[in-house]
Specification:
Blueprint: E1 16-17, H1 33-45, E2 50-53, E3 56-57, H2 65-82, E4 89-93, E5 96-98, E6 119-123, H3 134-142, E7 146-150, H4 163-170, E8 174-178, H5 188-199, E9 205-207, H6 213-222, H7 226-234
Parallel strand pairs: 1-2, 2-4, 3-5, 5-6, 6-7, 7-8, 8-9
Length: about 240
């Protein structure tokens, strides 16, 4: 299948994927444990050693943290029973929290699922350009959270020069560009902006945002992209610091 499990290890410098949707049946990601295992096996060939699962928390997928934790335990047992070896270690469960008018998170909620160091992965709507909640971001920062904005390059209403982006950086918000953006997976605009965020030193992390095998196949193609290889060679990202 597409030479899927041929060793490439292009993304070995990152070591850790801190954004993927491989917890089954909770959002638009993996549909079953078998698909999750298949995706993880392919990620291993690309050089990933560790993975954090980050299911959506938004109005379309109003997940509850306690339920997500239980499903994570079920998945770990299913992976163990599969007998597959050499998979990346699933370090822990976190979340990708959407901040928009339809799913506002109240600062101070203690059970939000974060990456190590109280890092909270968040996103905006890809379509609603009237809501970038800088006031809520500021409240989270005051409470000690370190915010990471997922895929800033994908928001058509924002770019590296946007006042909202500048204010987020002033608040200490880190950015995570999607690797697939760099190979035109989301269109030319996202690709151009993805490279621009990286070249300007405004992307602390690269994430796969893997949902299923279609993303994995695209990730395999991206691993052959010479420009992506240059990015990994010439820029230092903080993924490995998470585990």
């Amino acid at each position: 299948m597409f030479g899927l499990f041929r060793k490439k290890e292009t993304f070995a410098p990152l070591a850790v994927d801190m954004h993927c949707h491989l917890l089954p049946n909770v959002d638009d990601g993996s549909s079953n444990p078998e698909e999750t295992v298949h995706c993880l096996k392919a990620m291993s060939t690309l050089g990933y050693k560790k993975v954090f699962l980050t299911p959506h928390f938004q109005y379309r997928y109003p997940n509850k943290e306690d339920d997500i934790k239980k499903r994570f335990e079920v998945l770990k047992k299913a992976i163990a029973q599969s007998g597959e070896t050499g998979l990346p270690e699933i370090v822990n469960i976190a979340g990708e929290y959407r901040f928009d008018p339809d799913f506002a998170r109240i600062p101070g909620v203690d059970n939000v699922l974060t990456l190590p160091g109280k890092r909270l992965l968040c996103e905006f709507s890809l379509h609603n350009n009237n809501y970038t909640p800088l006031d809520i971001f500021a409240q989270y920062v005051k409470l000690g959270y370190k915010l990471i904005l997922a895929h800033p390059e994908r928001y058509p209403y924002l770019n590296v020069h946007s006042s909202e982006i500048i204010k987020m950086r002033e608040l200490g918000v880190a950015f995570q560009v999607n690797i697939l953006s760099l190979n035109n997976f989301y269109g030319e605009s996202a690709m151009r902006k993805g490279f621009e965020y990286i070249e300007k030193g405004m992307s602390e992390y690269l994430g796969t945002d893997t949902h299923n095998m279609r993303y994995i196949q695209a990730l395999m193609e991206t691993a052959e992209n010479k420009e992506v290889q240059k990015v990994l060679k010439n820029h230092k990202f903080k993924n490995a610091e998470l585990a």
